[in-house]
Design goal:
The chain is of the alpha+beta class. About 50% of the residues lie in helices and about 20% in strands. It contains 1 helix and 3 strands. It has a 3-stranded antiparallel beta sheet, with no helix packed on it. The N and C termini lie far apart (about 45 Å). About 0% of the residues are buried. This is Serine protease. Keywords: Coiled coil.
């Protein structure tokens, strides 16, 4: 494999990651969350969205 092919494959994977991240955001926005956690953060048991409660 030469360098150009590797770079092109990396760009394709980056685009795929962007598409998947958008899909995750859509799913999390549509979810009727059921959060569980502690005093520092809570996680939705349905969509894995994390809310940080303490900084």
């Amino acid at each position: 494999m030469n360098v150009q092919k590797i770079i092109e494959e990396m760009k394709q994977l980056e685009r795929k990651i962007e598409v998947l991240q958008v899909r995750i955001n859509e799913i999390q926005q549509a979810c009727d969350h059921h959060f569980i956690g502690d005093a520092y953060y809570e996680t939705c048991s349905k969509c894995n969205k994390v809310n940080v409660l303490y900084y």
